[in-house]
Amino acid sequence: MGSLAVPESALLTHLDVKVGEPEMVVPAEPTEECSLFLSNIDQVVAYVVDTVYFYAPNAEDENVDAAEVLGGLKEALGKVLVPYHFMAGRLKLNMEKGRLEIDCNRAGALFAAANCDLTLPDLGDVTYPNPVFRSLVLQGAHAKKFGASPPLLMMQVTRFKCGGIVLGMSMNHAMFDGVGAMEFMMNFSSIARGKGLITHPLPDRTCFKPRDIPEIKYEHLEGLKFSDIPQEMRNSFTTADVANSEISNISLPPEYSYKVFPFSGEMVEKLKKKTMEDGTLKKCSSFDAIAALVWQARTKAVDMPPDVPSKMLFAVDIRSKMDPPLPKGFAGNAVFSSYCIEPAGAVKENPLSFCVEKVQEGVARVTNDYVRSSMDFTDTYKAIPALPGGIFLSAWWKIPFQLVDFGFGKPIYAGPIVNAMVEFVLLLSNGKQDGGLNIYIALQNHQLDKFEQLIYDI
């Protein structure tokens, strides 16, 4: 069987986009000006996440004026920033408390129109992440003339020669997680279509405040005390100062390359059956199987010594795990970084069911009591996610971004623009809604070849 993987070298290498003069869009109505508390979960993800939404030309609306589309989007942005007023604010450091918070000051979100002389088909298969798509999203440099503190939300609308449109959204992760971002986009697009809010956002996250008297009841291997980490190992996932950095300037180490590994829905089902063959598991979800496979295959591919801990962190949604459960519309980060940590020898030598079991234990570990204890641990020791020496598995493939319709149809694909943090492994939608996904990973070239052999040996 030939290689199913898609190397970065096979993708479009240049994209010329002409960006118009950006302008600041403020909430369309008066809003409360205040400081918004950010939880310990919010604090450690204060970096920018860029996403792109690709919309094919609408055959029924060939004569729609581009200026009308732009005007409608800009007007809808101003309207949605009323209930989402914190997105028009700016990050600031509360010097007295030593914490980041959002200054809800109505400074606004950045908006710009752009044009590209290519057609959407010229971009190739847009389900494969391509670094050149970064030109479809506004970067920090575009906002410098508006002040030193960058906007928490920036939006670029790029029109292609064929009439297709790409929406590039740049959002600071401190505002909310994938579910919150999805709810924002659904609300935004609903307003653009002339409808009302679908879900009313609730940005208060004081439910995650640490206790006055800390109760650290568990060993929290998902976190590292900040004082214990050497400066050179403090990367953009672990330090809040990245909130003001230029992410596009971060480049992949020269010895590393990205590759996309497609997994069809049929392959996922086959993998799940394989994990159950030895009879040790009672059940296995798609995420359990894929996470275990990536963890084991990567540990083998990098030839990790048997006595070295092999570590994988992954996000667990805690909305329903908290007591009381978080309210519908919670607009903050409600994902908790759980972990699998085992000696590399055990990860490599045991059957895949062993790794699935460890993933399931990681999910089960995350309870209300454990999260509360972790909030206290993080606050007491200024802890950060224990990423150095491990990987973080970020699952995007089940977030239904393909439903976001601004009035010119649903996107042919929507997903993140990847950054150059080699520790992150992304599970992305394949654009087919067939239960399949694309695994996106960076390794050294000889390791990528071995990784490919291992994950497709099912």
Describe the fold and architecture.
The chain has 458 residues and is α+β, with helices and mostly antiparallel strands. Helix content is 24%, strand content 23%. It is built from ten helices and 19 strands. The chain has a seven-stranded mixed β-sheet. Strands 2, 3, 5, 8, 9, 10 and 17 form a seven-stranded mixed β-sheet that branches. β9 (153-160) and β10 (165-172) form a beta hairpin. α6 (286-301) packs across α10 (445-455). Mean pLDDT is 90; it is low at 238-249.
Key descriptive features of the protein:
seven-stranded mixed sheet; 458 residues; alpha+beta; 19 strands
Describe the SSE topology.
Blueprint: E1 6-7, E2 18-19, E3 23-25, E4 34-37, H1 40-43, E5 48-55, H2 66-80, E6 90-94, E7 99-104, E8 109-116, H3 140-143, E9 153-160, E10 165-172, H4 178-192, E11 223-224, E12 256-263, H5 265-276, H6 286-301, E13 309-317, E14 335-343, H7 344-349, H8 352-365, H9 368-381, E15 384-385, E16 391-395, E17 413-417, E18 424-428, E19 437-444, H10 445-455
Oligomer: single chain
Cα shape:
globular
Q: Major beta sheet, specifics?
A: 7 strands, mixed
Task: Tell me the radius of gyration.
Answer: 22 Å
- Round the mean pLDDT to the nearest integer and report it: 90
**Overall SS class:** alpha+beta
How is the largest sheet built, in terms of strand order? Answer: 1-12-19-18-16-13-14
What fraction strand? 15-25%
